Amino acid sequence: MDDSARVEKAARQVVEEHDPKKVPLREFLGACYDAGVAWVHFPEGLGGLGVSRGLQAVADEILQGAGGINPFAINPIGHGMAAPTVLEHGQGDLAAQLLRPLASTEHIWCQLFSEPGAGSDLAGLATSAVRDGDDWVVNGQKVWTSLAHRARYALLLARSDPDAFKHKGLTYFVMDMQAEGVETRPLRQMTGQAEFNEVYMSDVRIPDSHRLGAVGDGWRVAMTTLMNERSSIGGTSSVRGVGAIGDAVDLWAARPELRTPVLRDKLAALWTRAEAQRLTDQRARRSASTGSPGPEGSIAKVVSAELNQAVYEFCMEFLGPEATLYGDYTLRDIGRMEDYRGGIQQRFLRARANTIEGGTSEVLRNVIGERVLGLPGDLRADSGKPWKEIPRG
Ligand SMILES: Cc1cc2nc3c(=O)[nH]c(=O)nc-3n(C[C@H](O)[C@H](O)[C@H](O)COP(=O)(O)OP(=O)(O)OC[C@H]3O[C@@H](n4cnc5c(N)ncnc54)[C@H](O)[C@@H]3O)c2cc1C
Q1: pLDDT tens per residue across span 242-269
Q2: How far, in Å, is the centroid of ligand 1 from the Cα of 352?
Q3: Would residue 392 count as lying in a domain?
C-alpha cells in the first residue's frame, strides 16, 4: 500500500470508529493521534505515520469532511508550534509524555517569547534562567502571551548566559504553567477580548529534563518554533472560498441592497488573490517533505495577513455606516473557541493583529530578503557585543 493510501485508510478508520459528530472532541482527537493522523509526518507512535508532511491534506480532508474540528483552531500554539519543537528537540521520552494530551487538546499550550523590551528583536530578551542543581530558576516578564490563561504548558525562551552574544546566551524550556511563581494577567485587545496576557515568573523552577536543545542553543530551537508558527499561521484551508474571503462572499450574498458595480470589482479582485494564495499554499504543502519548514513560510504569512486585512476592510466598506456598530468592548475572555471569531466587525478589528502576531510584516520582509532572496542583511548595531553590554530601554 502506498503512503497516501495508508493515510487515507487510517483517517477513514478514525471517523468510522470515533464519529466526530457523536463522540467528545478529545476522544476524536486522541484517536487521530493514536492512528497517526494528527501530524502524518511525525514518527509512528507519536501521532504520525512517518510519511511526507504533504499527505496531511489527505487526512484533513477526510477528518474535517466528516465534521471533525481542526485542532489548530483550539490549540494553535500546541498543535502548530509546540508539537514539532518538542519532537525535534525534547530529551528522552519528553515527546511521548507530552504529545498525546497536546493533540487531544486536554493540554493547551502557550508561547512565552515576547517581552516588553523584546518583540521583533526577540534575541534581546531579558528573562533569566539560572541553573540550580537539577533545576533551572526562572525570573522575568513576558507579554502578549496568547492563551496563557488556559495553558497547561508553555514554550519558554530565557537568557542563561548574559555574558554571551545575544543569540548565543539563550536556552529553551517547556514550563508548567501551574508551577509555583507563575502569574498570568489578562490584557484587553481592541475587540474587548482578552486573548493574550502578561505572564510574570518569580523563582519558577523547571527541571532540566524539560530543557529543549542544548544549554545556550535556545535560538536554534526557537527557529524551529518560529518557522512552524509562520507556516501554520500562513497556511490556508484546502477548501475553496472559506475563511475571510468566505465571510466577504457570504456578506455579499446576504445584503443585495448594498451592492454596487465598483464593490463587485473589488470583491472579484480579492477572490482572485485568495484563490492564488490557496493554490500556492496547497502546492507548497503537497511538495513539503518531513523536515521543518524553512524561511519561505514567511511568504505565506505576509501574504495571508495582508489579504485578511484587505478582505475585512472590503467588508467594512460594503457595510458603510453599519460597519461602525460594535456593541461590547468590556474586558472578556475569548469564550468558547467556536464563538471566538464573533461578528464581522469583530473580525475586522481582530485582523489588524495579523500583520503583527508571529512576526511583523516588516520583519518578515527582512527574513524573506535575507534568507530566501539572499539580499544584504539589515543593519545590526549590536552584533558582536555580549548581551549585557547592549543598551536597553
Ligand atoms: C494578537 C497577538 C498575539 C500574540 N501572541 C504572542 C504569543 O503568544 N507569544 C509571544 O511571545 N508573542 C506574541 N505576540 C507578540 C508578537 O510576536 C510581537 O508583537 C511582534 O513580534 C512585534 O513585536 P513588538 O510588539 O515588540 O513590536 P516592535 O518589535 O517594537 O516593533 C514595532 C514596529 O517596528 C517595526 N520594526 C521592528 N524592527 C524592525 C526592523 N528590523 N526592520 C523594519 N521594521 C522593524 C515593526 O515591524 C513594528 O512595526 C502576539 C502579538 C499579537 C498582536
Answers
A1: 889 999 999 999 999 999 999 999 999 9
A2: 13
A3: no
